Known about the structure:
- With 319 residues, this protein is an alpha+beta fold.
- It folds into two domains: 6-95, no CATH class; 101-313, no CATH class.
- The chain has helices spanning 31-37, 57-64, 83-118, 139-157, 161-166, 198-214, 243-247, 274-278, 285-298; strands at residues 24-25, 41-45, 52-56, 65-69, 72-75, 123-131, 167-176, 183-191, 220-224, 238-239, 309-313.
- A six-stranded antiparallel beta sheet has the order 10-9-6-8-7-11, sandwiched between helices.
Amino acid sequence: MTVFNMSDDFHFIFPKKADRYKNVMATSVDFRRLEKEYCICFYHKSNDGSIEEVFNIITVLRSEYAGLQHGRLIFNSEGKENCEKLKRLLLGAIKKDIDKKMRMFSTAREFHNEMKRRHKNSGALCFSLFAEGVSGEPIPEHMKILKALSSRFFNNIRSRTTFKHHVLGYFWVVLKNIYDNRPYLHVNFYIDTRDFNNVIGEEINACWFNALKAMEDREGGVLHLTVTKEFQNGLLLRSTSGYSEQSGENHAIFNRFNSDASVITQDLNAANSEIYKQFTNNKDKQYFIHYLYALAKESYFIAENTHFFGSSSVVKRLK
């Protein structure tokens, strides 16, 4: 049975008491994997508000980490002013973040288990919703815009026939767009069958673009990740701008209809978890749990007192 504990991935800075007798060399730590799998960031804005930066805390740790020697954490800046303060800041930020992620994972897994207990044969449809940033708009402000857009989206789609009759519940999580550090929404719908087709995808698109239009014609898009025999995600990828051409050849969004009916699509955070996001309808029950665990690792906390995960189940089904 798989044990899910994110602290185990950071044993080289948070060793268990029983492991303190072993030294850890910096070269033995796979920082590249951690940078890919985890989103642990620090947001900084200059005093005059002209510059904002998002620091990857794992990348900062990677540049400083020199090992764990005789139970003591060693940094490359050892002996320099503020080294001990930097250690406390980095370790405190990482500990706080993975604690939040583990709580989110636990909540998401409980919600999923309850949904599957009540609806054993339900299917899953996951997709990502994004809005492009406006020049000069701070990232925390973009988070507020995303919240307003998501409220419009969910209010709109609840009135749609397909949603009313077939969607059993859903959850969402905030992730980080690797191209501009802005937050976006990853959503999973529980549907009353695994044999759903493109109709639900078209309704998702319509509701998101209606929300964008209502917010002063914001640019944005929808990225459909689920791959099934009947659901042709490649025909549903949408963007309202030339976003893909500006962001590099590996960007996942397409401006036009994709020529392929079903495609393995990289999500906007490029976290290498596509294998879980694409095939959430896998019959192996643990597969979906790994998907939830990957989402928890990737969750993006950009501002205090901001919700980064939410869920809802439909109590009554319409006949």
